[in-house]
Amino acid sequence: MRTCKPASGELRLEKRLDWITTLIPFCAIVSLCFLFMVFPDDSTSILEAIRFFLGDQLGSYYLIMGLGAFLCSLYMAFSKYGKIRLGRNEKPQYTSFQWGSMMFTAGLAADILFYSLCEWILYAEEPRIADMGAMQDWAATYPLFHWGPIPWSFYMILAVCFGFMIHVRKRSKQKYSEACRALLGKRVDGIWGKLIDLTAVFALLAGTATTFSLATPLLSSALSRVLGIAESNLLTIAILVVICVVYTLAVYFGMEGVAKLAASCVYLFFALLAYFFFWGGEKRFIIETGITSIGNLAQNFISMSTWTDSLRSSSFPQNWTIFYWAYWMVWCVATPFFIGTISKGRTIRQTVLGGYFFGLAGTFTSFIILGNYGLGLQAHGKLDLLGFYSQTGNLYQTILAVFETMPLAKAGLALLAVTMIAFYATSFDALTIVASSYSYKALEADREPDKGVKLFWAVMLMLLPIALIFSENSMTNLQTVSIIAAFPIGFIIFLIVWSFFKDARHYLDHEEIESNHG
Asked: Where are the transmembrane segments (predicted)?
């Protein structure tokens, strides 16, 4: 485990912190929250206009970024760069299970669990699904596409870039701007570097503050049903506080605590999947629909990745695909740093292919079992979930209706709640460690941030969602801010990858010269 103790003659903590990168984005987010609450209608209309422009008029930008990231990740793995080891000749720090579990749980795992239970419902009556073929085939295929290779490719290409920067080049600044140094040179120490880092931290805070808008109401509903108490803001806040305590304790004890929490998450996750698969009575349908979905995805991957719906006959890519690519791009500020950090000792090829294996194995298994169970209820006439959702307009109550069809429903809901809390806590472990690293002017690769800095971010990352609970419109608006923030993040991702290839080429050339002389 990495040490937090100051070295001899080291500057005091407050002298080592980068106050500009830490405070300006945080103040900007707080100011936006204030404006959303004071001027809800005006701020909503302005943000919707900007989001429409970016998502509708410039939507192809996000689609090109997505397919480009996927192809780039394959090139990284199978080209000459794939043999580069992140950490010279060092052995991997973590076992494959520890590494894979930390990576999966850090990558939007709680949201994956939530959407696994309901995403097919959102697509089932879309014109695009009817055009593609049978509803039960394509409503089960698109979730695998929107949470599959392209989203994970955003993580993989940046994890490689950051892992190379941290473990091979031994850079002392763990920031977006530092990853551009090979391309921008000394400009990263000036205004350009500050702009890159401020954009990154702003996107990180916006994405963090809004991710709870998706699944926290489900947690609240589940615990309300299990405990027999009324749903309220106080219950939701209590859930957030519990999550905060869990992940704060984990990050306080360092990477060892994070690894143990991630492993616990995976065991809980397996238990939930087994509960639905073995006791739900839909095993054959789950397996066969899953196989069909994977086949559909493999056969139609390129056309799904590049379909723009230029006539806007359904606006499906604008409403869904572009939204998801942008959402994952915002989360690219934190998760790839974490994956790059824990990949020490692995080659670039192992990092990319292993990342795809663990990421897609967890994601696909979740969507195939949990999603296809509900889809099976609908297809076999056991429960009209589409009708229920159409009447209530409430996804959370629809998910509870799915659980009511299971034996020991309250036990299942309790397992869901505990699993989601653990997933959220693990995701925020990664966020806290990365945000804490951003707070430093310089931080060596083998050092963890000070425990006090980690504690500050652990609390700060949770205060904003708690404040936003009291304004539903604000939560929606800030989610839109996250999508808007992805636009400049896309350009920064391009610069980071370009910088990596330039730096890695020089590194390989130097290694070849040394081996020839040796």
From this structure: 20-39, 59-78, 99-124, 144-166, 195-214, 234-254, 261-279, 322-342, 354-375, 413-440, 452-471, 483-501
